[in-house]
Amino acid sequence: MTQRPFARGHPALFAALALSLGAGAAPAQPAEAPSRSATDSLAARWEVAGVPAVNYDSDEGFGYGAAVEIYRYGEDPPYTFTLRPTLRLTTGGRRELTLFFDAPHLLPTGWRLTAFAGMERHTATPYYGVGNDVPYDPSLDAEDGPDPRYYRYGRTRMRVSADLQRRVGETPLRVLVGAGAVRVGLDLRPGDRGTTLLAEELAAAGEGPPEGWHNHVRGGLVWDSRDREVGTRRGAWSELLVQRVDDALGSESDYTRWTLTDRRYFPLTGRLVFANRLLLQGTAGNAPFHELQVVQSSFEQEEGLGGAKTLRGIPRNRYTGDGLFLWNVELRWRAFDFDALGRPFHVVLSGFVDSGRVWADGVDGG
Hints:
Layout lengths: L21 E6 L8 H4 L5 E8 L2 E3 L3 E13 L7 E10 L3 E10 L7 E16 L25 E16 L5 E15 L9 H9 L6 E2 L2 E9 L10 E11 L9 E13 L4 E14 L8 E2 L6 E2 L19 E18 L2 E17 L7
Antiparallel strand pairs: 1-18, 2-4, 3-4, 4-5, 5-6, 6-7, 7-8, 8-9, 9-10, 9-11, 11-12, 12-13, 13-14, 14-17, 15-16, 17-18
């Protein structure tokens, strides 16, 4: 089995503090049905929304595409089920087609099904090495230099997964079981534009690219006491997940990943909410480097450490390691409301502080 390339150093504490202000407009009640008491007399209904997926990201450039959200509402919030196909392309080389399905109330009472299928091709995926103190020399990947993609590699990833959650009695606790399959292909020198850090590390280790299948099973516990899933104002959303990737499942590698996440929400005023997330993740075994960039979740998978979903203001995937710590603190202010296209919207401004680090050889409390 292929071992990952090594780019390790002595772990050194890293903290990214990003103070910023962001704005976003969203439906005043996005993807959230009223409470049961308000819907008992309402018939089930459908809602379809389609919007252009236009954005800008400093890591990937301008993004464009389309996103469709299909909701089936019933008596219980947030919805009976939702189906979300998305096509996304960026000027930074990403091509992505995904389908997300979430059904809190489609199955018999107490069961929730979440599934994902997607294909991604990215010709410039960031890679800076494994460890918390790996150096970055901007001169090595200068656009007019011999190796303009030195800290990049090409990646094609196909992924399917499904999770079942079962509520325990009338408590906020749910038990989760799931499985998935991932097929990864790598291009060590995308566009044949010089060499890359990844190509040099693999050549020095005498290894080939860690491609192939990385299939998993997983289980966990989820505690969800949020007042609502979208636009949360109070409550907790915490989870402990354990994932096993094994050659018995047809995988090219063997490793175990565990993730502990605690999210808390506190209303400060009628329009101001304090949100906090603490995340600790560890991986044991011979996980390839690109799987160390996965941040596990019971809902939608993220990638980091670094980038818009983990450490804002830090380059995407800037830090990679067997162990990962992340702390996000955010103030969310619902600034004002308005109507457009016959629907109510609101604008939310957010100020945040992000902090995190990785360990090359697993979580180390020292």
